[in-house]
Amino acid sequence: MPEESLRESPAIQSSCHSEPLGEELLKESLVAYRDSSVVSQTQTDKKPFYSLFKKLTHKHNSTNKENAQDSKIYQHISMLAIINICFMICVFTPFAVYSSDVSQFDATQTLHTLCALFGIFLLSSSLLIYLSSFLYKAFIFKFSMLKLMSYGLSVILCIGVVYTFVLVGDYRFKSYGVLENFVFQGGAPIYGRFNKYFDLIYGLCTLGLCFVLYHFPHILRNIFAIISLWLLSLSGIYGFHIFHSSETSHLSSTELPSYNDKLLAFSKDKNILVLILDAFSGSHFEIMLEDNPTLQEHFKGFTYYHNTLATSNNTQFNTPAILGGHSYTTLSLLKQGIKRPYDSYLQAFSKIPKTLQENGYEIALYGLDPLRKEDLAKVLGDEATLAENKGEYMGAYIQQYHLQSYITQSLADYKKSHNALGTLISIGLFRAAPYTIRARIYKDERWLFASVNALDDFHTQIKYFSDIAMFPLTSNTNAQKPTFKYIKSLSSHYPWYLDHDCKPNISAQSQLPQAYKNIIVKEYQNAYNHNHYNNELCSIQAITQWLTYLKNEHIYDNSAIIIASDHGHYDSFKQILNNHGEQLGKQSDALLLVKGFFENAPLKRDGMLMSNADIASMICYFANITCAHSYPKGESRILYHSNSPFEEILSIEKAFSVKENIYEAKNWQDITSSISTP
Question: What whole-number distance in Å separates Cα of residue 390 and Cα of residue 539?
Answer without folding.
Answer: 18
